[in-house]
């Protein structure tokens, strides 16, 4: 479980998060949604210690973020940052190989090589393994990045808006991959999403944020309602149910 | 402060500096001596006046050349001395000294201007290929480009054992200016004055090729005229007094920030300010370590670098 | 978050990789080449007594190789922490700063005052000042201007100009008689190396290089970027500061030994990346060091003994290195 207690954060004088407390359960997919600037990515960065905590406490299982060793946390939790950046100048195999760094610190053993090859196979990257990342499509590159976190072999995987540069086929494929990771491998996935429909279709647990605070949390069928859309997103949109799952009419 | 009052103030300052310049030097001379001592008058005519005139012409014409270059390249952070033009001129005169040592000075000057023009054209060709979204790339490429040509000059000079010239051309200083040794600079002054007649054209060229063509300007011709003017001014300066960095960069930026880019209105002020600041640096160089001299290029290198950093970080007011 | 400084450091060419084991073979080849270029350096054109020539040239050879390794190592570290392939400490004005500090000391203390200090003391103080100054200057630049690479490079170049102008300014202010004390001029001199400093320099440089070598795996991770490094459990900030300290030490020593080297680092590291294309510092560091040794020793032999050119090697290196810089810059844009 990721336990967030009284976390506040400000960018200079501008407050971003106000005294947030939240428990993210172990297992399944938890989706963080909210309007632009609600503080979702900041919260994710704080959990992953990409930005230093200013107030409050975050505990991942028994590791307290900021107090525990960074490499210890790296074996417990992985984050896939937004990939607007240019691709690193690496081949797919090299990238996935770095996922094992928290374990071998630069001296990979036989076990590490095996895990890298297993990750490449699991994500069907075999044919691309020696291709440089910058020659891949956005979807393939994203898949390689997820394969790296898979090789990192952590209980928790955090993703910040992973669907940003993907088309519908790529987006669905990635979400199905995450679902597979959660269900078959018992990983806990926390993902910041823009699109409510992807969130309600794939998430087991939905957390909405509004202006630096947690607004609602629960199963998508409970959370996604016309009222919530009005309050949290400030838009009047209808919600239908298809096969029991809520679908926002856009 | 309006442009006119600024002009009057800078003109007053420049005249005051010029007066000081006439009476500062290793040999003591007071204004009163002029009437009493014929030696004093000779000193004035042979050394002090030529030196003062050379400094003023150099500063003013370099500032004007810098303005035109910034218009043509459409970038605030370039100037002839650091972007290859000055180094190209040094290469030309070096070749002339090696190949035709007996040729008249004017012929050597012509060659230096031609190589200066060629290397400026090379710079312009490179700049055209840089993305407009990265304005700071232009000075970066210019500095390295200038450095490469400079290293080429040093190489040739070493091979022909002409290294002593390099120091003369690469560091601008006026201590060697005497009557009979600086008169070529008047050509630079003339060229700078002539550019004023094309001030509007350069201002329009500064809006870019598309705007220029749609306003009926012969863009290519204006660019060429501008580059020729820059090359002549730079070549004459390098050969006569040596390279003086930053004058062509700092002065146009200050003027443009305060008074905009209407060159017809601002070029005279640019020239005044260029002359006055260079003269102030030269006087400072003469006084700081009296009776030794600190080259004006060094003084301006320090001051100019500081101003450049300020321009770089003070945000783009008028800067493009 | 500092994002990737993509534009220039970007890909000059499509990424190339060698077959497994090929990098090791190329490293061995480079080592062989260095040995081959050292032999004529030691022997060619000597007419004197071997008992004198060999130790004399041997010391110079050792100094050249050491300097080459220090320059290449500091360049690799700098390119990694700035995540950029066109920067070198020299381009950013590090060695100009060293010369300026030294000149400033002579100005303040007088040439004889400085002479009376033990050379090791001068060196330690100067290197310490350089470490502080570079942390102040580039530490803030790394954090803040990390987004704006061009501004950072330009700032470095202009600081370099400023330091050089201030140096020549101070030199003019110094009594011409004391002027001689400042031996570090505006050109690198690979021919007259100050071998008195060699022993202490060697110790310091070897220690710094060993420290860089120990960092090699962490550097691999830091090169991935801020977020990716933290995700893998590395603190990029700490690594950057440690690397900056090592860079400052190596630049100080190599500048004290031979003077400023301008584009040497860029040239040899770019060559090394072509010879051994790899993301791993465990390969890149030795490859760049060996390449630097070959360029310096081989170049010096060629210029001095074979072609008998009077131009010093640094001028050629500047010419070639400047061209490499422009090519990298323009090629990086075309992607």
Automatic annotation (TrEMBL), chain A:
This protein's record includes keyword Nucleotide-binding: yes
Membrane topology term: Peripheral membrane protein
Compartmental location: Cell membrane
Pfam families, sorted: ABC_tran (PF00005)
Keywords, alphabetical: ATP-binding, Cell membrane, Ion transport, Iron, Iron transport, Membrane, Nucleotide-binding, Transport
Family matches, as PROSITE patterns: ABC_TRANSPORTER_1, ABC_TRANSPORTER_2
Protein's UniProt keywords contain Lyase: no
Domain ABC transporter: 2-236
Major site of localization recorded for this protein: membrane
Record protein name field: ABC transporter ATP-binding protein
UniProt source species: Sinisalibacter aestuarii
From TrEMBL, chain B:
Keywords: Cell membrane, Membrane, Transmembrane, Transmembrane helix, Transport
Membrane topology of this protein: Multi-pass membrane protein
UniProt-listed SUPFAM superfamilies: ABC transporter involved in vitamin B12 uptake, BtuC (SSF81345)
Pfam families, alphabetized: FecCD
Segments traversing the membrane: 52-73, 85-103, 136-160, 180-199, 236-255, 267-288, 294-313
Main location: membrane
Domain of life: Bacteria
Localization in the cell: Cell membrane
PANTHER family: FERRIC ENTEROBACTIN TRANSPORT SYSTEM PERMEASE PROTEIN, PETROBACTIN IMPORT SYSTEM PERMEASE PROTEIN YCLN
Family indicated by similarity: Belongs to the binding-protein-dependent transport system permease family. FecCD subfamily.
Protein name: Iron ABC transporter permease
Organism: Sinisalibacter aestuarii
Lineage, highest ranks first: Bacteria, Pseudomonadati, Pseudomonadota, Alphaproteobacteria, Rhodobacterales
TrEMBL record, chain C:
Signal peptide per UniProt: none
Membrane-protein topology: Multi-pass membrane protein
Subcellular location(s) of the protein: Cell membrane
Transmembrane residue ranges: 62-81, 93-110, 122-142, 197-215, 243-268, 280-299, 306-330
Entry keyword set: Cell membrane, Membrane, Transmembrane, Transmembrane helix, Transport
Database matches in InterPro entries: ABC_BtuC-like (IPR037294), ABC_transptr_permease_BtuC (IPR000522)
Cell membrane found in the keyword field: yes
Family affiliation: Belongs to the binding-protein-dependent transport system permease family. FecCD subfamily.
Protein name: Enterobactin ABC transporter permease
Organism: Sinisalibacter aestuarii
């Amino acid at each position: 479980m990721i336990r967030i207690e009284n976390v506040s954060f400000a960018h200079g004088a501008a407050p971003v998060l106000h005294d947030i407390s939240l428990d993210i359960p172990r297992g399944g997919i938890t989706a963080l949604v909210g309007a632009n600037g609600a503080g979702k990515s900041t919260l994710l960065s704080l959990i992953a210690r990409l930005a230093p905590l200013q107030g409050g406490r975050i505990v991942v299982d028994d590791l307290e973020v900021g107090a525990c060793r960074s490499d210890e946390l790296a074996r417990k939790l992985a984050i896939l940052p937004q990939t607007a950046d240019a691709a690193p100048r690496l081949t797919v195999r090299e990238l996935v190989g770095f996922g094992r760094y928290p374990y071998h610190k630069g001296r990979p053993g036989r076990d590490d090589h095996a895990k890298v090859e297993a990750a490449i196979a699991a994500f069907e990257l075999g044919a691309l393994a020696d291709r440089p990342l910058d020659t891949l499509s956005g979807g393939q590159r994203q898949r390689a990045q997820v394969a790296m976190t898979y090789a990192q072999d952590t209980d928790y995987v955090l993703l910040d808006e992973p669907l940003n540069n993907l088309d519908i086929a790529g987006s669905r494929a990635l979400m199905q991959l995450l679902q597979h990771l959660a269900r078959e491998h018992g990983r806990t996935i926390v993902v910041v999403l823009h699109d409510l429909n992807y969130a309600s279709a794939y998430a087991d647990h939905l957390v909405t944020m509004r202006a630096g605070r947690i607004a609602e949390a629960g199963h998508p069928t409970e959370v996604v309602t016309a009222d919530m859309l009005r309050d949290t997103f400030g838009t009047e949109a209808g919600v239908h149910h298809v096969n029991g799952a809520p679908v926002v009419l856009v | 402060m309006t442009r006119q009052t600024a002009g009057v103030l800078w003109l007053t300052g420049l005249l005051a500096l010029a007066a000081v310049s006439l009476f500062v030097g290793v040999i003591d001379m007071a204004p009163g001596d002029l009437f009493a001592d014929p030696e004093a008058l000779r000193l004035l005519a042979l050394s002090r006046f030529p030196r003062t005139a050379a400094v003023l012409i150099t500063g003013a014409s370099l500032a004007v050349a810098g303005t035109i270059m910034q218009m043509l390249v459409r970038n605030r952070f370039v100037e002839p001395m650091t972007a290859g033009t000055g180094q190209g001129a040094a290469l030309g005169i070096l070749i002339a000294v090696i190949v035709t040592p007996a040729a008249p000075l004017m012929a050597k000057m012509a060659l230096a201007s031609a190589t200066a023009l060629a290397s400026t054209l090379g710079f312009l060709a490179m700049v055209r290929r840089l993305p407009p979204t990265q304005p700071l790339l232009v000075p970066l490429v210019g500095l390295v480009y200038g450095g490469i040509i400079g290293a080429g000059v040093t190489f040739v000079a070493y091979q022909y054992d002409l290294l002593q010239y390099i120091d003369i051309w690469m560091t601008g200083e006026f201590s060697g200016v005497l009557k009979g040794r600086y008169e070529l600079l008047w050509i630079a002054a003339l060229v700078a004055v002539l550019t004023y007649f094309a001030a509007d054209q350069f201002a329009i060229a500064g809006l870019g090729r598309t705007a220029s063509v749609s306003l009926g300007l012969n863009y290519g011709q204006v660019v060429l005229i501008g580059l020729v003017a820059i090359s002549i001014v730079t070549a004459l300066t390098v050969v006569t007094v040596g390279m003086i960095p930053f004058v062509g960069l700092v002065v146009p930026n200050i003027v443009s920030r305060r008074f905009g880019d209407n060159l017809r209105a601002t070029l005279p002020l640019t020239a005044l300010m260029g002359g006055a600041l260079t003269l102030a640096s030269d006087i400072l160089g003469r006084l700081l370590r009296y009776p030794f001299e600190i080259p004006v290029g060094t003084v301006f290198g320090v001051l100019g670098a500081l101003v450049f950093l300020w321009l770089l970080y003070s945000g783009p007011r008028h800067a493009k | 978050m500092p994002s990737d400084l993509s534009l220039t450091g970007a890909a000059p060419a499509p990424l190339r990789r060698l077959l497994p084991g090929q990098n090791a073979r190329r490293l061995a080849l480079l080592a062989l080449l260095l040995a081959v270029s050292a032999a004529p350096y030691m022997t060619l054109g000597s007419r004197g007594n071997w008992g004198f020539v060999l130790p004399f040239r041997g010391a110079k050879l050792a100094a050249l190789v050491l300097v080459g390794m220090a320059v290449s190592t500091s360049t690799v570290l700098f390119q990694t922490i700035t995540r950029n392939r066109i920067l070198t400490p020299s381009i950013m004005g590090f060695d100009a700063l060293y010369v300026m500090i030294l000149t400033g000391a002579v100005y303040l203390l007088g040439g004889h005052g400085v002479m009376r200090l033990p050379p090791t003391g001068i060196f330690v103080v100067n290197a310490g000042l350089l470490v502080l100054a570079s942390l102040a200057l580039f530490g803030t630049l790394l954090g803040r201007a990390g987004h704006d690479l061009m501004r950072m490079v330009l700032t470095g170049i202009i600081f370099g100009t400023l330091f050089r102008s201030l140096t020549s300014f101070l030199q003019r202010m110094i009594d011409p008689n004391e002027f001689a004390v400042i031996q570090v001029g505006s050109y690198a001199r690979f021919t007259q190396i100050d071998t008195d400093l060699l022993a202490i320099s060697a110790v310091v440089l070897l220690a710094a290089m060993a420290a860089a070598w120990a960092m090699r795996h962490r550097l691999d991770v830091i090169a991935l970027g801020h977020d990716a490094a933290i995700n893998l459990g590395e603190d990029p900030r700490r690594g950057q500061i440690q690397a900056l300290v090592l860079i400052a030490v190596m630049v100080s020593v190599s500048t004290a030994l031979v003077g400023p080297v301008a584009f040497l680092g860029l040239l040899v590291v770019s060559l090394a990346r072509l010879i051994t294309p790899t993301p791993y510092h465990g390969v890149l560091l030795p490859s760049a060091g060996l390449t630097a040794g070959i360029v310096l020793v081989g170049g010096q032999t060629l210029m001095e003994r074979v072609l008998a050119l009077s131009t010093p090697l640094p001028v050629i290196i500047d010419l070639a290195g400047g061209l490499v810089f422009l090519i990298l810059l323009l090629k990086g844009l075309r992607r």
